[in-house]
Amino acid sequence: MGTVEDALQEVRERFARSEFHSRWLSLSLQRVERGEVDVAMDVQPHHLNLMGTLHGGMIATLADTSTGLALRSTLEPGQTFTTTQLAVTFLAPGREGRIVARGRVLRSGKRFGYAEADVVDEVGRLLARATATFAVLPERDQ
After folding, report:
1. Residues 69-79: pLDDT tens digits?
2. Nearest to 101 by CA among 123, 73, 120
């Protein structure tokens, strides 16, 4: 059984190695605690949709990332997970500037996990709220 700090460090290391998250999307980890992870992005013009607001897919990606990493921070060594359901309720349009998804785990079990995320802009305005469920699985050898 690993320590909590081992689990948190493992989340940080996985994120840093992810071409998709840290390089291609330019997401950044803002906070990593057991069961809670904040992921941020600086919205640029190429993230906007045809109406000039932040594309909903970017918000969903932030929510999925923050909830998934929050769950990962609670898992035992040798466990992994996959998102089985993600629901996002969009509440306000996102604009250019920094946005943050604040993921938090409400249930982490041996087979199932549940987490929520709030996505807020730089002044704290709630842009979206997401819920996610996860299947917890044994990690496979790569």
Report:
1. 999 999 988 99
2. 120
